[in-house]
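G., before I forget:
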Amino acid sequence: MNPALLTTVQVVVVVTFAPLATGVVRRVKAFLQGRHGPPVLLPYWTLLTLMRKEMVLSTSTSWVFRAAPYVVLATALLSAAVLPLVARGGIAAPLSHMVVVAGIWMLGAVFLVLAGLDSAGAFGGMGSSREMTISAFLEPALIVTLASFALASGSSTVDGMLAIGGRGLLSRPWVLPALASLGLIALGENARYPVDNPATHLELTMVHEAMVLEYSGPYLALMELASMVKLAVFALLLVNIVLPAGLLTTATGIVALAAAPLVTAVKLGAAMVLLALVESSMAKLRFYGLPEYFFGSLFLGLTSLALGLFAGWL
Amino acid sequence: MSFVRLFQTLLTGPRVTEPAALSPAATTDDVGAAGAELRAVLANLYDGRSLRIRAVDAGSTNAEELELLALGNAYYDFERFGLSFVASPRHADILMVTGPVVRNLEAALRTTYDAAPHPCLVVAVGDGACNGGIWRGSYAVVGAVDQVIPVHIRIPGDPPSPAEILQGLAAGLRRPR
Amino acid sequence: MTAAGLASVGLVAAALFSAIAALAGLAGRSRAARRLHHAAMIAGPVAGLGGSFVFLAWRVAPLSLGASPLLFHAPLVVDRLSAFFLLLLHAVSLMASWFGAKYTEDEQDTYPPRLVLPLTAVFVLSMQGVLLSSGVASFLLFWEAMSLSAFFLVMADGEEDSRKAALLYLAIAQFGAGALIVGSGILGAGSLFATFDTLATSVGLLSPGASTLAAVLVVFAFASKAGLAPFHAWLPEAHPRAPSHVSALMSGAMLKVAIYGLLRFTSVCWPDLPAAWGTSLLALGLATAMVAVIYANIAREIKRILAWSSVENIGLVFTMFGFQLLLRREGWPVLADAAQAAMFMHLLAHALFKSGLFLGAGAVMHGAHTGKLEMLGGQANRMPRLSVAVLGLCLAGAALPPFGSFVAEWMLLQAALTSLGTRNAHVVIASVAVLVGMAFVAGLAVFAMVRLFSFVFLAEPRSAQARAAVEPAGSLGRPIAGLAAAGLALGVLSPWMSPLFPVKLEVLGPSLSAGPPSSGPSGLWLAPALAAALAAALCLAWLIRRSPGSTLRTRRSHTWDCGQPIDATMEYTATGFSAPVRFFLRDIVRAEKHLVFRPVVPSNPWIRHGQMEFRKAGGILGRLYFPVARLIEDVGGWLKQLQNGVIQFYIALILATLLLTLWVAL
């Protein structure tokens, strides 16, 4: 299949399923709480409603506040285009170099933080300060974790990491700590438990939500879509590292195209159920308890890297 | 071990949100029916099926707040109808105002309405919000919510039960404006 | 005219224009002389930029620009290394002079033009001289001229704090210069009149001990000038004190000239420094960067933050230098070349964005009359054009895609990743340290840059003077925008930038399976591809925003305040913003918090007046410099006891010395 087509299909599928993933995780969490829960398609309706609503912009904000939703969504879309989520070897795949991916995510986080501070309220500033701390301190863990995957696969592009044959990355068991570390990073980067509570209404405990408190209408829709896409990207990436089967490649025929959405939906669904179970079984950490979290994930990544280097020597 | 027990409870524990027919007060508190109706109304009205609510306390006794809070609990679980509470009026489609507007909160109510993007429906929840209730005429209150901001839907009751709130919402939204 | 001719004309003209500017600046009281000065200050870098560009792009062989007895007969020579640094210097000084032309006119009351104008020209001229010198003596002459003119510029505003900072700077600069003179003396076998060519041969005749001693002295000299820890204490004090365009020159160009000196001396005298040098410079560089980036998050004044960020970036440069040295000695020349390319890329990127940020700080302080973050804010609505440029520069400073600094980081990290496959314990440990350290520094650098931009430009202004600020004049804003555009172009157009660098630019291929690195296609073309992909994603986001059915209706309202009116005093502060960094890294920062409670009424201890004091522990000054100074003082004081004024005692001492000498001699 044409590499350009692969990337297009991937972006379309990921963006289409991203709100569904959020709907599923909310529904499953409600189920675990003994509730019925919101309809899984609700996020789509929320986004549509928001797109049609008026926008109220704070008088304190500047052009940065208006530019931020585009940049945040663009970085989420870009990460959905370059990483091997639905397809491998797409036209954007060479850009899935780990340093580039970390840079793209950081760029999105930066604009989110700027937007939070631009609203001139204390809540936005508080959320921004926390988000920036989380992003900054997870950076070493992210680099080290991806480096150990690179060592295991012999490639520093994420696309190449999934391209190794056999049973994938897990055929080198020493990447397991790094996988756990990536899970911790994914929870932190996506403002999920135990770093943030995605459902909180209490401003003092917010991280991600506090930064978008000032947004309304279409800009809020862009911001929410961006965080949904980012969640789906991390979920699919984690699933694909464990189970690289079912990815489209340039070698697969056009028929497989029809199966791709199904495979993606199953993978996303599985990841979301797992996420709901994780979130339902742990409490949120104190913000000042987070250093242990950051250094824990860094340590897991380093463990993998060290084990991998020793395995290479033996 | 504790995790195993936790997941056992989570996965096999009782479903607390009961079907409408099993509800002890099924005839009057018909939550399920009201909710279903609300969903149908929302689908027609907004083409959105999603309704995000910001609760505004304009000086209530907290009785209405407790009822609103109950909407979200496992028994009533109003999220299944596509409703949710949000943390900022910027995100809201509906303001649910409770209490007679006391003078100290008059400005706050006004700015909240101003902060919410339009179209924004205002729902007066409880007798105090609808007409001032027992505080009507007091020097400390402005009076009903519609003396400060436009009100679209009134849900009387002191306080209205969660089911009444849902029914009132559905009835109010159905009414052509 | 040949390319060589063009290049030499351009470079000589640059120097002459700087000299003219210096002379014209001396008559700074006259308006016409000031005009002439500014014209020459701009014309010089334009000529120099053209000359060095022609030299690099047309790959001209090293050429001599002529000798003079004034410069001890050592010719002025330009080769690819010095041409790269000349390009960097002229680019920075062009923008700084363009900015300075308006800035110095407006700030005449603070910075007397008769002092600032000629000194700035001498400063630029002496940096050119350092880069062009081929002889040790002229190098040292220009080096001292550079240090001294910078010293006077630092205290140009005549304030007490500036004088203190300048003296600290002078002390460390003279320590460094002394070390350089002694080191060069050892290298030249007692003579300071050697040229670099003769130095290469004479150093071979030295004993290994003398050679190492000279290396230590020379490296110390350049490291202290560049601001490598623990000799960095002067930098965050002195750089913020100078006029902003001079700060830009100091951080953007002077630090790079120090790196040039290091590269020049090491390449000439010690082409085979042992690997341990690489390891120690790498460790020092990483430590510098880590500590400096933390302080960049704690400082609360724009230019101080920028100065700490300069220390951080110099640390990264030393990391890259040490890493490439280590790789070369351990026998991985391809990896070493990649790390070296990253170093040059970072040098140029840092020169562009840091000088731009210093100019931006100058423009903001010019408009808002303060540089304190806690008094600024809201400038994005008051200076929209400047805020776009400064945001670009801040993103470049945070090494985010698609800016040049990101490409440099990418080059280095890919080199470190590939080094993981070398199976050489020394190299592998170093690369893991580089990966972790660089990522730590990168994360906190983003934090610092975001903090800098947000608290200057976003939200509501925190003081009346910040509220009254207006967009600076175009002649102040345009150089800043130019530097931001240059930083962006450096990243986006990096594959085409290779001719301007003394080394081949490349990002190693992504594969790291093979032991020796694969010579696959250079990954540098990915930089423009990334920029294009980002632009495409932005377009897609815009299309989603404009999708049919979405509304464009907007309304303005005040910030959501929970019903209680809020003002700028309730905004998050810069101190609060970086509180998590201070808290998480409290063992490094060692800040002391003192809480004092005093009861308001004696009868009730619970109604009390609280006061919080937050004091940063002494830092490097308090922990290293002052104890050393105190030690010297104590020893001096102890020795002073000898001078008790009793003549018999002195005679006894003379006798004792004589006996001791005789005993040693015999």
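Confidence is low (pLDDT under 50) at residues 514-521 of chain C. The first strand of chain C starts at residue 63 and ends at 64.

More on Monday.
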